[in-house]
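Continuing from the previous page...

OK, I double-checked the sequence for DRBM domain-containing protein against my notes and this is the correct one:
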Amino acid sequence: LQKRGKASSLSWEDKVIGPRHAPEYTSAVKIDGETIATAFAPQKSSSRDMAAKAALVVLFEREMVSESLVPESDDVVVGK
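Thanks. Re-ran it with the corrected sequence; updated structure tokens here:
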């Protein structure tokens, strides 16, 4: 995104649901206001990490990042 001058268009939307003792975080990666990827986890940092990995896969498919940045993990689920 930096190479394309779009780093400033990246934003996050985080939400938390559930009781205090068992929260569920939802993190969405947005570019120019469009949700690129969303992930859910019991910790905000994990939710963001998973959403970021999924976003890299989507951006690669759109030819916006190089293949070397795409995670090899099978646990990345792409979709809206």
